[in-house]
């Protein structure tokens, strides 16, 4: 399994607006294309105003195929534009994680 771990740092005061827009418009599109949402979290301690989400894939090729389909979806393109115009996200990072032989996932 490959896990895509993404961390978004929001502009202070914009976390709620980001989550509302994402839940209403972005999440349904991602679930349609990416499918395996492992978790979606906000930070309680440490760096504040962060959203962390994890998506599971069978392989790097599976991830690439799914993400390519999503990036070509007109609804996703419209959502990304709307999200960018809202100016909620300050910084983004992502890591691809490979599970170990003894991992429960």
What key attributes describe this structure?
105 residues; alpha+beta; Alpha-Beta Plaits; 3 helices; 4 strands; globular
Share of helix, binned: 40-55%
> What is CATH's topology name?
Alpha-Beta Plaits
User: Please, how many helices?
Assistant: 3
Radius of gyration: 14 Å
Largest sheet: 4 strands, antiparallel
What is the CATH top level name? Alpha Beta
Pfam family, one: NIPSNAP
Protein name: NIPSNAP family protein
InterPro entries: Dimeric_a/b-barrel, NIPSNAP, NipSnap_domain
Domain NIPSNAP: 4-104
Describe the structure.
The chain is an alpha+beta fold. It has one domain: Alpha-Beta Plaits (2-Layer Sandwich). It contains 3 helices and 4 strands; from the N terminus they run E-H-E-E-H-H-E. The chain has helices at 15-33, 60-71, 74-86, and strands at residues 2-10, 37-42, 50-57, 89-98. Strands 2-3-1-4 form a 4-stranded antiparallel beta sheet. The chain is globular. The model has no long low-confidence stretch (mean pLDDT 96). Belongs to the NipSnap family. Residues 4-104 form the NIPSNAP domain. This is NIPSNAP family protein. Pfam families: NIPSNAP. InterPro entries: Dimeric_a/b-barrel, NIPSNAP, NipSnap_domain.
In short:
This protein has helices spanning 15-33, 60-71, 74-86, and strands at 2-10, 37-42, 50-57, 89-98.
Which helices and strands appear, and what pairs or packs with what?
Layout: E1 2-10, H1 15-33, E2 37-42, E3 50-57, H2 60-71, H3 74-86, E4 89-98
Antiparallel strand pairs: 1-3, 1-4, 2-3
């Amino acid at each position: 399994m490959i896990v895509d771990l993404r961390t978004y740092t929001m502009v202070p005061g914009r976390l709620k607006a980001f989550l509302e827009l994402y839940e209403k418009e972005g999440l349904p599109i991602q679930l349609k294309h990416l499918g395996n949402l492992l978790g979606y979290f906000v930070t309680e301690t440490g760096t504040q105003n962060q959203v962390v989400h994890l998506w599971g894939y069978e392989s790097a090729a599976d991830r690439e195929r799914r993400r390519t389909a999503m990036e070509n979806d007109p609804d996703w393109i419209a959502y990304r534009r709307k999200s960018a115009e809202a100016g909620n996200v300050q910084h983004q990072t992502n890591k691809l994680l490979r599970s170990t032989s003894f991992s429960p996932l």
